[in-house]
Amino acid sequence: MKTNKKYALIINEALRSALDYDTPEEQINEFIRFFGKHIGSDRIYIFEDDLEKSITNNSYEWCADGVEPQINLLQAVEMEQIDWWYEAFDKEQNIIIKDMETIKDEHPASYELLKEQNIQNLVVSPLRYKDSIHGFFGVDNPPEGDLDRLSVFLEMIGTLLVSLLKLRNSFHKSTEDARFSGYTALSQIYLSMHMVNIKTGMLQTIKSPNFVDENLDLQSGPYFPVQIKNVMEQLATEKYKRSVFEFTDIATLAERMKGKETIVHEFLGTVSGWCKERFIKVDADNVLYCVEVIDEEKKRENWLLYLSETDRMTGICNRGCGERKISEMLNKHIGGLLCLIDCDKFKAINDTYGHAVGDSVIIAVAETLQNSCRENDIVLRLGGDEFAMYIPGLLDRQAADLFTERVFAAISSIQIPEMGTKQIHVSMGASFCLEDEEISFDRLYKEADEAMYQSKKVEGCCVTFYKHEKE
Asked: What mean pLDDT, rounded, does the chain reach?
């Protein structure tokens, strides 16, 4: 009676402790941890069956201190090895083995499987759902003398675990649907993409080409360590197999990814040539394993770089890129002329002709400024109808006057059909940066901006040069 009360109290406390956690996954792990620790067993585990493949997988495990975890070794276990368990389950019986040696002759396959795990005795109860067996819940090496009573309580626990597993499946489906939707879009830039649980080794396919699928071992189930070895034995060249196997070893992955969001490795493939394999952290338990062709990566990197540095509307440098390039020149003491340009009465153009025409004006001005400059000159759009140019080497006022006159002439010749004969005018402020002068972009910009403020007071195209104190 005391033992019954003991187990009942432990079950209640284990459930209460599990419900302190947010997700079904955490609740299941906490439940078996609490139960295993308080009954004094070596190991608690849950196996979930894959009836289509006639295998069962160890999905959850708790081990006492000093007990070797078995979960990674107990994936894709053939149900035939323990077929007599399922026969007992069908008769609504649990499995109670009080001495492992008693099954040695009658069930040699089971004996070898269990003996390798240092099991002396165990109790196992099925997980039932809608009158079907979907797996089992077991305890290894529980306290001697309690096995029969423990068996009764495992049946009660099994009902609770089935409820938690159903909640987990619903939770996973909703979160996985949202997660996979995002990852499916991301996978378009990769040759293949798989989600891998680094604790269980189980994988889920997000994207996989036919030549990868053809090298999978269907009998082994979705177990990453086995499947990646099968695939890379065929798809990695001999020279790179060892480094690929070391990189994809999930036993060391958590340590290698400490403090990192991603790690990468390059290898030469037999089908796609040079490839890059990558692990990307998803959460504490999961990573994405992605493979991409490096040529595609380079194209993507160049495109992303272009997008990050280019003003989408005009195709010239955006503000961030332009400022950085000018600052680099200033840091190298490459003197020149900074010009700020602002379209006059641009709001009136938008109000009168519409924003589409206003966009045409911005594009035309940007193109004109770019065409007025040399290849190493920097032209950027600051935003709205404001632009800037940095002309390295232009340090002479007379040459600067000729340059700005040429720019004004080109802008005045812009023709926007919707605007008829109406000309575009701009105001310009300019400031020189002398060779070897120590000056920041912000200061040079401020000088040119003060000069442009004066130009805005004049009708038509006008430039004002900032006057330094020594002038």
From this structure: 89
Give the Cα separation of 37 and 291 in Å (integer). 41
| Residue percentage of the chain with pLDDT more than 70 | 94
* Nearest Cα residue to 195 out of 183, 181, 205, 186: 205
Pick the closest to residue 381 from 368, 394, 393, 392 (CA basis): 368
DSSP H or E run through 124: strand 122-129
Contacts of 360 (CB under 8 A, 6+ apart): 416, 418
Query: How do residues 28-67 score in pLDDT, each as one tens digit?
Result: 999 889 888 888 899 999 999 998 889 999 999 999 999 9
What is the spatial distance between Cα 156 and Cα 86, in angstroms, rounded to a whole number?
18
In degrees, to the nearest 5, what angle opens at C-alpha 311 toward C-alphas 333 and 382? Answer: 55
For 240, residues 6+ apart whose C-beta sits below 8 A from its C-beta are: 267, 268
> How far is 241 from 270, CA to CA, in rounded Å?
11
Residue (of 308, 312, 332, 329) closest to 320 by Cα position: 308
DSSP three-state, residue 292: strand
Identify the three-state secondary structure at position 403. helix
How far is residue 391 from each of residues 336, 436, 441, 445, measured CA to CA in Å? 5, 15, 14, 14
Q: Any idea which of 121-130, 154-163, 173-182, 452-461 has the lowest mean pLDDT? A: 173-182
CA distance 134 to 131: 10
SS3 letters for 212-227? HHCCCCHHHCCEHHHH
Domains of the chain in start order, with CATH, are 2-171 (3.30.450.40), 190-300 (3.30.450), 312-465 (3.30.70.270)
**Helix (H) or strand (E) run with residue 350 in it:** helix 346-353
pLDDT band at 5 (very low <50, low <70, confident <90, very high): low
Tens digit of each residue's pLDDT (9 = 90 or more) over 73-104: 999 999 999 999 999 999 989 999 999 999 99
Residue from 249, 209, 215 nearest 232 by CA = 215
The token duo for 75 is: 């994936």
- Residue 261's φ and ψ, nearest 5 degrees, are -95, -25
Question: Tokens 């080109």 — which residue?
Answer: 410
